[in-house]
């Protein structure tokens, strides 16, 4: 894991104590202020009552006296309320208004201040979150349902070779790696993707996609270069060990063969021991060969010059013939349904190895007399598809996601007795990856399995099927 990952992002500062809580001195002051306002209001009321009394003294008419007093009071109230409203509109602070409207103005000012404080606090909090997200060492990109970039952090700019100005653009127009585009369109967002950093091919990234908000996706990219280097060291080690073992094993197998040939009693104990040793050395040789092939597939890039148009009908015919030999006395029924005009552009040696592994597995894990169907066809979407279906022992669903791991075997003893190395499907996976194809496995215990490989449509080539010449 890279160093940057091992360092946790800067922890968020604890929130400041709640400033909106009103201190007691402030509360006392505001109570004093309210009492003063009520007093002012009573004085005003008393003044207008006095005015009413004067009018009564002059006119000796109670109705007029009350009307004048109330009109005066109402007029003063409306005038003061208008001042409060004007003050609120202009955000004026401290405009002196008496009595009841003053009380309203005080309340209004307090609410405005509390609201302002809360807003400032929220802005500070948002800034802190933004800053933390920006300084996370993993690339983070928020994507809209149309795959447009809505937000991205600094690490995303560096690791994914994006720019701040790319906000609003579709990410699949900026990162054009086919595996990335395919992964992005894949509805199964739980699957991760290993990708070479678009900005720096020395860096390896691991991408994940998580649902975010109502309809957004959060793309998280982690720099796994250090992990890759470590893997490289392991791969080199395995390749070197396998390479070193190859010669001594060949010598051993050669001597064992000679000893077996010179053994006179084919029913004796020595013959049995030598046969066993020879079988085991053969098994070791197969494991070494598979390990070497796997390490080559893992460590090299497929060279375009090795790609050629392959006559699949002929290739699958040869493999089916070998499968029939492997079946021997078990007499599996091998059926071919092959579109002979459909050719595939690929690396012959690698595809031969992958298809053989899948077809031979069908034979190995299907009891004698079972049926094996090999299909080669063009899907409705125009993709060339290879499929092998058997009526064998099947696989429990929980094993399926792990089948392509090295040495993953459901039943180790059975695999060994059938001459398996536990590396066949790992080889298949790598060959398929190198051809931009994908593997789909469906199986049920005791009901057989289907291994399907779908290639991109661009790898298909249409040829006129070869018609056998009529014999004279
Ligand atoms: P092996 O050399 O053991 O066959 P593979 O990598 O080819 O190794 O396959 C891994 C495991 O997957 C096998 O050990 C077997 O348990 C299971 N498997 C593969 N193909 C089939 C199949 N057609 N039917 C049932 N199980 C299978």
What does this structure look like?
By secondary structure, the protein is of the alpha+beta class. It has 4 domains: 3-129, no CATH class; 137-223, Beta-Lactamase (2-Layer Sandwich), CATH 3.30.450.20; 235-299; 304-462, Histidine kinase-like ATPase, C-terminal domain (Heat Shock Protein 90, 2-Layer Sandwich), CATH 3.30.565. Helices cover 51% and strands 16% of the residues. The protein has helices at residues 3-6, 24-59, 62-89, 99-135, 154-159, 171-174, 178-185, 225-262, 269-299, 312-327, 348-364, 412-417, 424-434, and strands at residues 139-143, 149-152, 193-196, 204-212, 216-223, 308-310, 333-338, 342-346, 371-378, 384-390, 438-444, 448-454, 460-462. Strands 2-1-5-4-3 form a 5-stranded antiparallel sheet, with helices on both faces. A 5-stranded mixed sheet has the order 7-9-10-12-11, covered by helices on one side. Helix 10 (312-327) packs parallel to helix 11. The longest helix is centred in the middle third of the chain and has 38 residues, at 225-262. The two termini are 70 Å apart. The structure holds adenosine-5'-diphosphate. Adenosine-5'-diphosphate binds at residues 357, 361-362, 365, 390, 392-393, 395, 403, 408-411, 415, 420-426, 449.
């Amino acid at each position: 894991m890279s160093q940057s990952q091992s360092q946790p992002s800067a922890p968020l500062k604890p929130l400041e104590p709640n400033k909106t809580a009103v201190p007691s001195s402030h509360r006392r002051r505001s109570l004093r202020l309210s009492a003063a306002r009520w007093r002012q209001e009573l004085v005003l009321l008393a003044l207008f009552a006095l005015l009413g009394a004067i009018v009564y003294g002059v006119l000796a008419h109670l109705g007029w006296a009350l009307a004048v007093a109330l009109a005066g009071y109402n007029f003063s109230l409306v005038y003061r309320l208008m001042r409060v409203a004007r003050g609120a509109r202009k955000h004026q602070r401290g405009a002196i208004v008496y009595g009841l409207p003053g009380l309203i103005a005080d309340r209004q000012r307090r609410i405005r201040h509390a609201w302002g404080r809360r807003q400032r606090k929220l802005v500070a909090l948002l800034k802190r979150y933004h800053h933390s997200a920006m300084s996370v060492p993993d690339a983070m990109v928020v994507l809209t349902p149309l795959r447009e970039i809505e937000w991205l952090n600094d690490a995303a700019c560096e690791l994914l070779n994006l720019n701040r100005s790319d906000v609003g653009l579709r990410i699949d127009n900026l990162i054009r790696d086919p595996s990335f585009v395919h992964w992005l369109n894949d509805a199964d967002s739980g699957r991760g993707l290993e990708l070479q950093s678009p900005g720096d091919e020395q860096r390896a990234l691991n991408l994940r996609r998580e649902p975010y908000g109502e309809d957004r996706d959060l793309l998280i990219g982690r720099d796994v270069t250090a992990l890759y280097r470590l893997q490289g060291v392991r791969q080199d080690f395995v390749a070197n060990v396998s390479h070193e073992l190859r010669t001594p094993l060949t010598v051993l197998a050669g001597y064992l063969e000679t000893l077996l040939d010179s053994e006179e009693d084919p029913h004796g104990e020595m013959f049995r021991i030598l046969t066993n040793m020879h079988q085991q050395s053969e098994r070791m040789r197969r494991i070494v060969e598979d390990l070497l092939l796997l390490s080559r597939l893992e460590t090299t890039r497929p060279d375009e010059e090795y790609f050629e148009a392959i006559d699949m009908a002929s290739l699958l015919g040869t493999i089916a013939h070998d499968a029939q030999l492997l079946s021997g006395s078990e007499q599996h029924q091998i059926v071919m349904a092959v579109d002979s005009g459909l050719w595939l552009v690929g690396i012959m040696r690698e595809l031969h190895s992958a298809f053989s592994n899948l077809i031979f597995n069908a034979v190995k894990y299907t009891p004698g007399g079972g049926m094996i169907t090999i299909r080669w066809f063009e899907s409705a979407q125009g993709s060339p598809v290879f499929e092998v279906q058997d009526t064998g022992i099947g696989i429990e669903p929980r094993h399926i996601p792990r089948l392509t791991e090295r040495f993953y075997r459901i039943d180790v003893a059975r695999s060994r007795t059938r001459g398996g190395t536990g590396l066949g499907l790992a080889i298949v996976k790598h060959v398929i990856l190198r051809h931009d194809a994908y593997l789909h496995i469906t199986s049920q215990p005791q009901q057989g399995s289907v291994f399907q490989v779908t290639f991109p449509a661009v790898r298909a080539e249409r040829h006129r099927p070869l018609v056998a010449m009529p014999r004279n």
